[in-house]
C-alpha cells in the first residue's frame, strides 16, 4: 500500500473514530445518568452510518440491481438456510438487547 492510500485510510478511520466518540464525549461531559449505556451503544452507530453511505451510493447509481442480492438469497434458499439465517439474526439481536438491558 502506498503512502497516499495509507494516509487516506488513516484519515477515514480517524473520522469514524471521532464520529463514534462524539456521543460518548457529550454524555461524559454532561454526566448523563445512562452514559455507560451510551458508551456501549455508540459503536453500533457505525453500522447505520455505513448503511447510510451504501444507500446514498445506491441512490446515486440510478440502477436497480437485485442480481447480487438475489444470487445469495437463492443460494440460501437452495440449501434451506434462509430461515436459519433469519432466526440467527433475530436471536443475536434479542440476546444483544437482553445483555444491554441486564447491565
Give a quick summary of the entry:
83% of the residues lie in helices and 0% in strands. It has 103 residues and is mainly alpha-helical. The protein contains five helices and no strands.
Topology:
Layout: H1 3-30, H2 35-41, H3 45-61, H4 67-78, H5 82-102
Major beta-sheet overview? none
Give the helix proportion (percent range): over 70%
Q: How many domain units? A: 2
Discrete helix count: 5
Uncertain residue ranges = none
User: Count of DSSP E strands?
Assistant: 0
Shape: flat
Give me the secondary-structure category.
Answer: mainly alpha
Radius of gyration, taken over Cα atoms and rounded to an integer in Å: 19 Å
Strand content: under 5%
- What average pLDDT do the residues reach? 77
Topology order in helix (H) and strand (E) letters: HHHHH
Describe this structure in words.
This protein is an all-alpha fold and 103 residues long. It has two domains: 62 residues, no CATH class; 39 residues. 83% of the residues lie in helices and 0% in strands. The chain is built from five helices and no strands. The mean pLDDT is 77.
Relevant terms:
0% strand; 5 helices; 103 residues; 2 domains; mainly alpha; flat
